[in-house]
Description:
Elements: H1 3-24, E1 33-37, H2 43-51, E2 56-59, H3 62-71, E3 77-80, H4 89-95, E4 98-102, H5 105-112, E5 122-125, H6 140-153, E6 160-162, H7 171-185, E7 194-196, H8 203-208, E8 213-216, H9 218-221
Parallel strand pairs: 1-2, 1-8, 2-3, 3-4, 4-5, 5-6, 6-7
Amino acid sequence: xxxxxxxxxxxxxxxxxxxxxxxxxxxxxxxxxxxxxxxxxxxxxxxxxxxxxxxxxxxxxxxxxxxxxxxxxxxxxxxxxxxxxxxxxxxxxxxxxxxxxxxxxxxxxxxxxxxxxxxxxxxxxxxxxxxxxxxxxxxxxxxxxxxxxxxxxxxxxxxxxxxxxxxxxxxxxxxxxxxxxxxxxxxxxxxxxxxxxxxxxxxxxxxxxxxxxxxxxxxxxxxxxxxx
Length: 228
């Protein structure tokens, strides 16, 4: 089997599962954006996906995303989903169409200072593991104060929330919590409607919980080849 055939087969399998989960949840497929995460995969794999019709790609590292965005067609939408580092913000702003991992007012100010930034294409990352500050994200308690500060002090207007389900928690429970958090803040922040939830191991549960953006990599591309 060629690499093209392998990726095509896996993509069809994932699309079939998305369609089934969407139907079970009483939703429609066009409510959900599939983002294929190409982190640690070569540009050639991304080109295969492009030829198969994929136009949304996710990257966790600025350097890798920046290089790939230069080598691939310009109609691709690039989603940055790694932890934001202050020194990388200018570069991320130059290539990423969406940022899924904004979690501080300082970073929002810096992003807002660059004219190329798409100011409504941000998700606030929520940390569902309070004891794991290395995970990134803001606590649910600090979410509304952060949104208020971003709204009053920057031009950025986030469109949604992002989270990663903790390994020790059932995905259904974690995603239900995110649904509750989003619903809680809708009165004050009606523009926060999107939910970036679900990866290769739990995207069907994410769909059931109302996810609008799925970040799927290994289920389509296989095991990642880690950099040396």
